[in-house]
Design a protein that fits this description.
The chain has 3 helices and 6 strands; from the N terminus they run αββαββαββ. By secondary structure, it is of the alpha+beta class. It has a single domain, classed as Roll (Thiol Ester Dehydrase, Chain A), CATH 3.10.129.10. It has a 6-stranded antiparallel sheet. Strand 5 and strand 6 form a beta hairpin. The chain is globular and about 50 Å long. This is Thioesterase putative domain-containing protein. InterPro entries: HotDog_dom_sf, YiiD_C. It holds the Pfam family YiiD_C.
Length: 153
């Protein structure tokens, strides 16, 4: 097991203690490699009246995936920060009819360098992420989100 994956496993345990809602959303094990994060979830606890994925659940999983990606990245940089979503835009592209996963990837290194520079100089920074909700290879929803991090004092 890689250090990144061990970090993700410990993070999920911590997260379930911090946000009680996610204990009821059917999350599977996080898959994390230091550059991308996959957050799988079961359809059954996230279903709507039509038998497909409830939009609010899909949005929650995607938002949380981006938040977790930023938080894990900062922790691996040795930073203790409060992370929150500032704003987001969601596009629903296809119904989700089975288990699904939200996937977030860090942006390119120049954006990460700018983010860390703001964190170093101002104690806060913003990172824009693109998160996809996928059912297999099909992209069912996208979330473009701006996440803000603030150093804890």
């Amino acid at each position: 097991m890689s250090d990144h994956q061990q970090t993700a496993d410990q993070f999920l345990v911590w997260l379930k203690g911090q946000i009680p809602l996610i204990n009821h959303m059917g999350f599977g094990d996080l898959l994390y490699d230091g550059q991308s994060l996959q957050m799988p979830a079961a359809l059954a606890p996230n279903v709507n009246d039509k038998g497909t994925g409830f939009g609010g659940s899909l949005s929650t999983v995607a938002t949380l995936c981006g938040w977790a990606m930023v938080t894990l990245y900062l922790r691996e940089q040795g930073r203790d920060c409060d992370v929150m979503i500032r704003d987001s835009q969601i596009k629903y592209l296809a119904p989700v009819t089975g288990d699904f996963a939200a996937v977030a990837e860090l942006p390119d290194q120049s954006e990460l360098d700018t983010f860390i520079s703001f964190m170093d100089n101002k104690g806060r920074g913003r990172l824009n992420l693109e998160i996809e909700v996928r059912q297999g290879d099909k992209v069912a929803m996208t979330l473009s989100g701006a996440y803000v991090a603030i150093d804890r004092v």
